[in-house]
Amino acid sequence: MRCCGTSRSRRSGGPSFNRAEGRHPEVPWRRPADLRNRIVHGYWSIDLEILHTTATEQLGPLIMALHAVLDELT
Q: What's the whole-model pTM score?
């Protein structure tokens, strides 16, 4: 998973990413990219309460899930 504007459709993904995505369906792979796109392209309609909830309640579990995936891959 990449940030900084590289969309999933424009990157190859590579074998490691595809393997991780398939083995870990519990990780919401698409949601971070969707959030980034909403922030970048729809800033006039961002609900700051939802953004705050995402950052304070959902980001931690996502990071933990991604660490588990990285541990498996390395």
A: 0.62
Q: Which residue has the tokens 């990449």?
A: 2
User: Which pairs from 5-11 meet CB under 8 Å and 24+ separation?
Assistant: 5/36, 5/40, 7/33, 7/37, 8/33
pLDDT tens profile 5-60: 444 444 556 666 677 788 888 899 889 888 888 888 887 888 889 899 999 999 99
Q: Is 14 left (phi over 0), alpha (psi -120 to 50) or beta?
A: left
In angstroms, the Cα distances linking 27 to 40, 46, 49, 55, 62 are 23, 24, 23, 16, 7
Residue from 12, 29, 11 nearest 20 by CA: 29
